[in-house]
Amino acid sequence: MHDTNFLIENNAKHVWHPxxxxxxxxxxxxxxxxxxxxxxxxxxxxxxxxxxxxGLWNVNLGYSCEPVKAAMIAQLHKLPYxxxxxxxTNSPLIELSYELCQFFRPEGMxxxxxxxxxxxxxxxxxxxxxxxxxxNGQPERTKFFSLKKxxxxxxxxxxxxxxxxxxxxxxxxxxxxxxxxxxxxxxxNQFETDDGAVIARKIAAIxxxxxxxQGADTIAALIMEPVLGSGGVIVPxxxxxxxxxxxxxxxxILLIADEVITGFGRAGSESGSRLWGIKxxxxxxxxxxxxxxxxxxxxxxxxxxAVVIESAKGATGTISHGYTYSGHPIGAxxxxxxxxxxxxxxxxxxxxxxGVQLLAGLERxxxxxxxxGDARGKGLxxxxxxxxxxxxxxxxxxAVVQALYDRAYDSGVIVRTSGNNVIISPCLAIGSEHVNxxxxxxxxxxxxxxxxxxx
Length: 455
Ligand SMILES: Cc1ncc(COP(=O)(O)O)c(C=O)c1O
Prior knowledge:
The chain is about 40% helix and about 15% strand. The protein has helices at about 5-10, 20-25, 55, 65-80, 90-105, 120-135, 155-160, 195-215, 240-250, 270-275, 305-310, 330-345, 345-370, 400-410, 430-455; strands at about 35, 40-45, 50, 110-115, 145, 180, 220-225, 255-260, 280-285, 295-300, 370-380, 380-390, 395, 415, 415-420, 420-425. The N and C termini lie far apart (about 45 Å). It has two domains: about 30-65 and about 345-455, Alpha-Beta Complex (Aspartate Aminotransferase, domain 1); about 70-345, 3-Layer(aba) Sandwich (Aspartate Aminotransferase, domain 2). With about 450 residues, the chain is an alpha/beta fold. The protein is globular. The longest helix is centred in the last third of the chain and has 23 residues, at about 430-455. It binds pyridoxal-5'-phosphate.
């Protein structure tokens, strides 16, 4: 074991961090997080922080969830790994697949395909969408639709449906036959309105027009996040998902709900699809499924898809897709224990209640500080969008956002910044007092951001 000096000396020197410039990481080395306890983490200098990031939207039950840790350790001793490819399986995987289908029964899910994370789950859904149409006698249905500002991970399929140029440009050309619709975003849009219902109808009209242009019989699926997370916590109007579901149904297009963030309670309901009252054809899940303790995801498949693929003969019905770690026994044991705790603690309800308190506090901060252009959120996923000019909605520059981050960190709360957005996604097991701590830290941070802006 190396000492603290070694860690500080070598920080970011021999590793490339995700979504970061290696040079910048070396110049401004990241905080080294050493411990996690309850809903807090402690950095290498002993500085204790309330985790306003929730790991990365995933440590929903906090860092001290003993039943989950115990299940992992027990499984590690019993069977640390065995594959689930044709011919063998393991008991936690059988139990987890049963449990997942029970958990997502209200969404109409009937089968689970286990993966190693969100990007894998998205990729699985995209591939299965094409396989479904092939098995259903419509092999020309290969195109995908998605939303601008959506985020669906970093595999080529997921990156192709991503709606943010940052995640695409260096790796182009992306998959052909992918088309993007405008985001259901009230704060910034092309429609010159902040009326969410109007925006929903306009996007639906664009979708209809594009379906007519492309030919419905060429389109496999529409993939969307129920609440757009990484794109800056964009909460669609309640009519948006039902509208898009109805259009998809009418044209034989599958609807994939990317529930990597919203699955298991984050938006204040067991899933984002349940929140909006729709049944998707497939759901990509990950993050909260294992409380962040094991890299795991699941693509969930509805009865409609399952029936068609399972009744296809030979190669067309074979799932020619899978990962070495699909159905990893420790991952499955982790998820089983996590889901039991998610239900026992009813964390979705807690997220819904505290989300109201959080959003009200963010609205108050918006009243207090000109630098806040927009405050938005659903459940315990929320964002502040910082601007240098409120009327023109000019995005605040990096130094302003960094000033907020640094002051909040110094005051004992860690939040996440992305462009000019400050994203708040704490563990779902927090209490009202934690929400107040986050709001106080943001208050201090916004004062610092305002100073930076006026400098
Ligand atoms: C909605 C959504 N889909 C997919 C992904 C990709 O998941 P992962 O980073 O586990 O591959 C993410 C990650 O944040 C996400 O938010």
